[in-house]
Design a protein that fits this description.
It contains 15 helices and 22 strands. The protein has 607 residues and is an alpha+beta fold. The strands form six sheets. A five-stranded antiparallel beta sheet has the order 5-4-10-9-8. Strands 12-14-15-17-16 form a five-stranded mixed beta sheet, with helices on one face. A five-stranded parallel beta sheet has the order 19-18-20-21-22, with helices on both faces. The relative contact order is 0.06.
Length: 607
């Protein structure tokens, strides 16, 4: 190629083959005609392409694109050198087709991009899995860890990527690299109140050295849910047993309580006999409370739920406790000006408070402080909840804190178990079990925080009512509300309970008709319905129970008010049975004053 005008003066056969031209065709062409337009350097009017290329590349190898005769491009690697031929300045251009090398480079680049994409996907997968995933070298150096694993390593070992791992919690790392004792299970680590499961698998490298992949998962919450589930199963079994017992027991207690209350009102009793009747009544109440404890923890209590503002309720309970607890226990109530209304049975909530207060009293034999705290919290959807299974929404948060001895770690897992007690022979082990049952029957949750020698705090969450009406106090009349000769149909299968109810109602100046079960009651209603002003019926009876009687009365359009008596909670939600002719329901055994008041309300004579 001449330097002055870039004319091709000679080519070898390989150049002809590479470019697809004949030797004669190439000798009639200039260099710019076989160069890609993108590779043509900018030149001045008195400067040739060859001169510009010499100035740019000199003797250094360069890459460019040449144009074949068919218009296709061929990648080439070339070098230039000046020569003098017969007094004429020429350039010797040595060019090599590098198509195969370029293809190989493209394949390598494509493979690299593919590997990098796979690495990114693997990294994304590791970072999004909820378990901790890490890789250890043969000498147990942490080479890689996802964010979850980094948090766990900081907690369990105070280590990070690049450092050697020697332990997790209190367990040596070597113990965790072996197979668990039972096939398919994971190693377990208990550390500072949390539980982790760990499993490791070897990964052999091409060099023969062994790396390790380790997976760590925090199962603290899952174990707690499993524990609660097992406890619920045990309670369900106890509940099935106690439900049947409670029905018969409450029939017996209804007879004793009603007769004792009626007898104690007699003018013919001596002072000594009146005191004996009072003792009978008190002991009957204690027996009733015992069966109530069992029904509470087995979640089978009959609840009378209504809107209840906990702030005035707690104020009254604090006043009561100030009179009943020892003077060396200081009682405080902390709260903010918020709405603390829930849907609750006041009697059961009072029982919950008393049980927790007595528990705190026993933990502070030498005195201390008992603090009740109320606050309202809002749980957003997706936000971590303080207790597993809690849902989003508004909750009333209650704390009952003492400065007592605290609960030892070996006792803590058992505190809500029925019949488990550390106060034997004085305690029956039903107090906290009853508290948990009451809380859960109100769709609430309970948790506990404790430290030995510092104290214990029970934390309770109840669903808050958004548009709650102010809770009204239950009217308690010092005198019995008497009847005016109305007729009441009493439906009760237990002979003694039926007789007690019959005599109690007659004392209240009502006329009484009795039936042994629902079918007999329907026959009486068919014949004498116009005479009957109210139906007072047990729920569980042979032939036909109270609920079936109620539904049949609805079907037959018998519009007589009904009061149901029940000794335990039913599978049916009694709130859903508030139809026109169901006035209300009462728990067995009924209190005589409350029975009189409830009947008067049902008959529309008492507001």
């Amino acid at each position: 190629e001449r330097i002055s005008d870039s004319q091709i003066v000679d080519v070898n056969p390989q150049a002809c083959e590479m470019l697809g031209y004949t030797r004669g065709e190439l000798l009639s062409m200039t260099v710019d005609e076989i160069k890609s337009p993108h590779d043509l350097p900018e030149t001045s009017e008195d400067e040739s392409i060859i001169e510009q290329e010499l100035a740019t590349y000199g003797a250094r190898p360069f890459e460019a694109w040449d144009v074949r005769k068919d218009g296709s491009l061929v990648p080439v690697e070339g070098s230039l050198s000046r020569i003098d031929h017969q007094g004429e300045a020429l350039v010797l251009s040595i060019v090599r087709d590098i198509t195969e090398r370029k293809q190989a480079e493209e394949e390598r680049q494509h493979l690299l991009e593919k590997v990098q994409a796979q690495a990114r996907r693997t990294r994304q997968l590791m970072e999004t899995v909820p378990e901790g995933v890490l890789m250890l070298s043969a000498d147990l150096t942490i080479e890689l860890a996802n964010p979850t694993a980094e948090e766990m390593l900081a907690f369990l070992a105070e280590k990070k990527v690049g450092e050697m791992l020697s332990r997790l919690g209190e367990r040596p790392i070597e113990d965790l690299m072996t197979s668990p004792p039972t096939r398919g299970l994971w190693h377990e680590i208990k550390y500072e109140g949390r539980i982790f499961e760990v499993i490791a698998r070897p990964v052999e490298k091409e060099t023969g050295a062994e790396n390790w992949v380790m997976v760590i998962q925090d199962v603290t919450q899952a174990r707690e849910i499993q524990r609660r589930g097992r406890q619920q199963e045990r309670l369900a079994a106890v509940g099935q047993l106690t439900a049947g017992i409670a029905h018969d027991f409450n029939n017996i207690m209804a007879t004793i309580v009603l007769y004792a209350q009626m007898a104690s009102r007699s003018d013919r009793l001596s002072k000594a006999d009146r005191e004996r009747m009072t003792t009978i009544n008190q002991q009957a109440r204690h027996a009733t409370q015992l069966i109530q404890q069992i029904l509470d923890f087995s979640r089978r209590s009959a609840l009378e739920r209504m809107p209840l503002d906990l702030l005035p309720f707690f104020k009254e309970q604090v006043k009561l406790l100030e009179r009943t607890l020892p003077e060396h226990i200081a009682i405080h109530l902390d709260y903010r000006r918020e709405d603390y209304t829930i849907k609750a049975d006041p009697t059961r909530i009072q029982q919950m408070i008393m049980n927790l207060a007595i528990n705190a009293r026993d933990a502070m034999p030498h005195g201390g402080a008992l603090t009740f705290a109320l606050m309202r919290i809002q749980m957003a959807r997706g936000e971590p909840t303080p207790v597993p299974a809690m849902s989003a929404g508004a909750w009333v948060h209650i704390e009952v804190a003492d400065t007592g001895a605290g609960i030892p770690p070996d006792v803590l897992p058992h505190i809500f178990e029925p019949f488990y007690t550390t106060k034997a022979p004085l305690g029956n082990g039903l107090g906290l079990a009853q508290v948990q049952g009451i809380v859960e029957q109100h769709e609430g949750y309970i948790d506990v925080e404790t430290e030995v020698g510092v104290g214990t705090t029970f934390i309770i969450y109840f669903p808050a009512l958004s548009d709650a009406e102010a809770a009204s106090d239950t009217l308690s009349l010092p005198d019995l509300v008497m009847g005016a000769g109305e007729t009441i149909l009493v439906v009760e299968d237990n002979e003694m309970a039926r007789a007690a109810l019959q005599e109690s109602l007659r004392m209240l100046l009502y006329e009484v008709i009795v039936a042994h079960h629902g079918k007999e009651a329907l026959e009486i209603l068919t014949r004498r319905g116009s005479e009957i002003d109210l139906v007072l019926s047990d729920v569980v009876m042979p032939e036909m129970g109270g609920l079936a009687l109620l539904r049949t009365m609805q079907t037959q359009n018998i519009e007589i008010p009904v009061i149901l008596l029940t000794g335990h909670a039913l599978d049916n939600d009694l709130d859903a049975l508030q139809v026109d002719n169901l006035h209300t329901w009462m728990a067995k055994p009924p209190d005589l004053e409350k029975l009189a008041e409830t009947i008067a309300k049902a008959l529309g004579r008492h507001q």
